[in-house]
């Protein structure tokens, strides 16, 4: 009974939105008013674990089936995760998890652990473009596929591409952006990735589209780019800088600058935070090992050191909420197959990840920014937002 009392006492501080807690034969209400969601505990969570990391304790309880949500998982998380500022995190106890090595070898291992789960897995819930980043919903009824096409078109328009230009994509994923640039603008392009699954899929797609003379993809760390002595008219990076670690933000922008021609355009698309923090322990342990979300201000500060003149900054936060909810819906349709291919704990982990991220974007805990900049001054560009 003491353990149950301690758990309920800990949860009582999360009272911004009232909810019901079911614990064996007992029910408790947290907060005042009509409960907006219900949490059922099938097993107690020790108070020591909640204090060490509220995120890890609750996340692992959900993965193990010791914590269940009655009704919509997203609805519950949307109300609860707006109070993440009340979570407990013992950074000293979690030092290795929160501050891992940023060596090339370790970062390749971290990226591979997420992106090399298998192309078949991602194909189950991404759209046909295999875009694993925020979509752009120009219209309320846009499908996920249309939103990803919109996003790619929007980025390419911002880059002000002309026929024959060279385009580098740092962290190119499965290559849709470069393929579209080659087909629509007749550009030449190179993509780099640390995922062998993405590399193989992209190479197959280049051959399928007959773009061998225009495109190439390499298994390469961004830190190796200066060694190539290559120069590009445009550089783009979508959802990549979050993987490099806080110590390497300047190095990342240094490498982008070194391969970008003077006056060239640089577009950086990344998940961001209002202020600097080491990241969420559960996400770093199970989803994105080593991942750290930059603040907008530190990225802008870093880019100034490379003489990047910022033309525009745009926040697409709510577009990512919609994107993630689309992914979560697709995931749920294929959940049985995913649980069969992997196991139930894996299936619960990923549904928690997709829904919790949708909730954190919706609550403004994280943002999605696109920064457009030129290397040095470029007075040849239109003086209005041409895109």
Distinct helical segment count: 16
Beta-strand fraction estimate: 15-25%
Main beta sheet = 7 strands, mixed
Could you give the order of strands across the largest sheet? 7-6-5-8-9-11-10
Broad structural category? alpha/beta
Question: How many beta-strand runs?
Answer: 11
Q: What is the helical fraction, as a range of percent?
A: 40-55%
**Gross geometry:** elongated
Radius of gyration over all CA atoms, rounded: 22 Å
Span between N and C termini? 62 Å
Any descriptors?
387 residues, four-stranded mixed β-sheet, 11 strands, 42% helix, Class I SAM-dependent methyltransferase, transferase, methyltransferase, DUF7884
Description:
The protein has 387 residues and is α/β, with parallel strands linked by helices. Helix content is 42%, strand content 18%. The chain contains 16 helices and 11 strands. The chain has helices at residues 2-11, 47-52, 54-63, 73-80, 95-98, 104-115, 119-123, 144-158, 176-185, 196-209, 249-258, 281-286, 296-304, 317-333, 335-341, 344-362, and strands at residues 19-23, 26-30, 38-41, 67-70, 166-170, 188-193, 215-219, 232-238, 260-272, 308-315, 367-375. The strands form 2 sheets. A 7-stranded mixed beta sheet has the order 7-6-5-8-9-11-10, sandwiched between helices. Helix 10 (196-209) links the parallel strand 6 and strand 7 (215-219). Helix 3 packs across helix 16 (344-362), helix 14 (317-333) runs antiparallel to helix 16 and helix 15 (335-341) crosses helix 16 (344-362). It is elongated, with a radius of gyration of 22 Å. The mean pLDDT is 95.
């Amino acid at each position: 009974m003491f353990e149950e009392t301690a758990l309920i006492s800990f949860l009582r501080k999360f009272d911004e939105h009232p909810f019901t807690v079911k614990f064996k034969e007992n029910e408790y209400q947290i907060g005042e008013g009509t409960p907006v969601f219900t949490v059922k505990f099938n097993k107690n969570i020790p108070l020591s674990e909640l204090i060490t990391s509220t995120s890890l304790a609750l996340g692992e309880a959900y993965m193990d089936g010791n914590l269940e949500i009655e009704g919509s998982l997203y609805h519950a998380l949307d109300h609860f995760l707006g109070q993440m500022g009340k979570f407990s995190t013992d950074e000293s106890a979690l030092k290795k998890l929160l501050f891992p090595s940023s060596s090339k070898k370790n970062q390749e291992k971290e990226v591979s652990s997420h992106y090399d789960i298998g192309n078949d897995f991602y194909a189950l819930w991404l759209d046909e473009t295999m875009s694993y980043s925020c979509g752009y919903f120009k219209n309320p009824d846009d499908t996920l596929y249309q939103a990803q096409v919109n996003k790619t078109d929007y980025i390419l328009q911002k880059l002000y591409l002309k026929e024959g230009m060279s385009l580098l994509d740092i962290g190119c994923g499965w290559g849709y952006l470069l393929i579209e640039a080659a087909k629509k603008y007749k550009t030449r392009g190179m993509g780099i990735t640390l995922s062998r699954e993405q590399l193989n899929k992209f190479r197959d797609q280049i051959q399928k589209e007959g773009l061998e003379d225009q495109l190439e993809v390499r298994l390469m760390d961004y830190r190796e780019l200066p060694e190539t002595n290559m120069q590009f008219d445009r550089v783009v990076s979508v959802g990549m800088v979050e993987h490099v670690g806080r110590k390497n933000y300047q190095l990342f922008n240094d490498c982008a600058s070194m391969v970008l021609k003077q006056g060239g355009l640089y577009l950086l698309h990344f998940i961001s935070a209002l202020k600097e923090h080491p990241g969420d322990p559960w996400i770093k342990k199970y989803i994105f090992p080593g991942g750290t979300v930059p603040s907008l201000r530190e990225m802008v500060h870093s880019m100034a050191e490379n003489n990047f003149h910022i033309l525009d900054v745009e926040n697409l936060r709510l577009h990512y909420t919609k994107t993630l909810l689309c992914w979560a819906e697709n995931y749920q349709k294929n959940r049985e197959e995913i649980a069969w291919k992997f196991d139930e704990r894996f299936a619960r982990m990923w549904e928690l990840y997709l829904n919790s991220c949708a909730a954190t974007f919706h609550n403004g805990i994280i943002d999605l920014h696109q920064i457009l900049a030129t290397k040095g001054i470029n007075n040849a560009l239109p003086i209005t937002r041409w895109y």
